[in-house]
Amino acid sequence: MAEISSSGYKEYVAGLSAGVAAVATGHPFDTVKVMLQKHNAEAHMIQYRNGLHCTARILKTEGIKGLYRGATPSFVGIAVEGSLFFGIYSQTKVYLQGGVQSGEPRPQVIIPSAAFSGAIISFVLGPTDLIKVKGIFRGGCATLLRESIGNVVFFSVYEYVRYHMHSNIKANSSNHRNLVDIGVGIASGGLGGVAFWLTVLPLDVAKTLIQTNPDKNCPRNPFGVLSSGWIEGVLYSLGATVSRAFPANAATIVAWELALKMLGIKRD
To answer: 155-168 pLDDT, tens per residue?
Structure first.
């Protein structure tokens, strides 16, 4: 589906809204994942049976604010990232379409637009990781590959699911149309997010291994790192990653599309 009209700054504002929605939905999942990894790996700490047990414990002892511990920096960082990411994707897509409306999604437009926006974002994510790993370009290759490849998959799934769902669902009123738009956004965004992580989770594990290795001279080729012992890391994080991917990306897309509509950027 192609944009009929576009206004530069508005696409970045819509992307900022998407970033805020991503943190609001996804941060509790990240909190639970960190608690599971930290507490279950260290002696003399609470042992959680699973994610639900961990969530219930946090809510009981700290309330809802416990799930959003440390969320403020994330809101700022992800909001800026979302603004750049969706703004660059939208404007690159419009440029490649030459301003001509196009019905069915075209790979020759989606793939370079998604890859380019993902590549740019990988350089934004590098300094963010500096706080954690004290090496601004360490793991940069893995991050670049993860964001470029992953976002090609994400936007391809999103655009095609969105197109075919809208093509087969007819709304009889404006109220029904709004509900359809939200439902399609949930399905297309959620499935796109799951597809993203199923595709690039090995690269994400490689990035983590490179960034957390205490040896400053450790190998930084992600494929070399993946050649040994990466399956365990993928399997360990698969459940938590996928369970977060659907709701977080569904909320992100719904917020993005609603923001575009409110800002007057129309889509077929």
So the answer is: 999 999 999 998 88
